[in-house]
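Now for one protein, fold included:
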Amino acid sequence: MLDLLKKLDTEMYDIVCNKKVYYNVKISEIKDNFMLIETKKGDKIILNLSLISSISAGKDLAFGTIPKNIKL
């Protein structure tokens, strides 16, 4: 699985697991049907691989900012 993830050519991933989305996480390790991920805050989370529905390359989005070009 790590070989397939390397083909996405990124270090940060967006993961959908059991209807919860983890944005811009780093995959630390995959072992025995579990995945260890690390969030931006430094939190580590263990996910069951059978519950993951998709993994995609992380997008560089600034959360919590308001674009200046919006006209109301």
